[in-house]
Amino acid sequence: MKVITTSIPDVKILEPIRFSDERGFFMETWRQSGFDELVAPRQFVQDNHARSCRGTLRGLHYQTQNTQGKLVRVVVGEVFDVAVDLRRRSPTFGQWVGVWLSAENGRQLWIPEGFAHGFYVTSDWAESLYRCTDYYNPTAEHCLRWDDATLAIAWPISSSPLLSSKDQQGCCLAEAPLFD
């Protein structure tokens, strides 16, 4: 597993080694000991699977209790995946990282606790799998506006994205509950 540091040092890109031949490919996508050594010691307790059509934007979601770290990968299609630092005392507070994740590139994105997460689908369909370090807690879930001018995320969007009602109700960074 190759680990790539992003502009926010706690957010990492993981590139599994892919072995390909005329039959297809094989890659190891998860190994606890390797993750602990190369990224951060964490235990994952929940796996999620999301399927979305082209133009869907999900996020930017986070929980202030049962705070979740997420290891995200795409197994069908392609997404532009975003992590936003919401740790008030962090030198990268309010900054974001955007990474292309696809079935083709096999990359994974580690988003530690204290970050909001979202993605935009650029292929006809995309299926994302993500491991979480804590359980989903809907009573502690929050949503940042995907188009908050303060964040100025450079989404690869050419028209209005498809949003859930929850995502349409997101708040701006200035109004958001944050982490210390």
TrEMBL record:
The keyword Isomerase applies. Pathway: Carbohydrate biosynthesis; dTDP-L-rhamnose biosynthesis. InterPro entries: RmlC-like, RmlC-like_jellyroll, RmlC_Cupin_sf. Catalyzes the epimerization of the C3' and C5'positions of dTDP-6-deoxy-D-xylo-4-hexulose, forming dTDP-6-deoxy-L-lyxo-4-hexulose. It catalyses: dTDP-4-dehydro-6-deoxy-alpha-D-glucose = dTDP-4-dehydro-beta-L-rhamnose. Its EC number is 5.1.3.13. Transmembrane segments: none annotated. Keywords: Isomerase. Homodimer. The keyword Isomerase applies. It comes from Pseudaeromonas paramecii. This is dTDP-4-dehydrorhamnose 3,5-epimerase. Belongs to the dTDP-4-dehydrorhamnose 3,5-epimerase family.
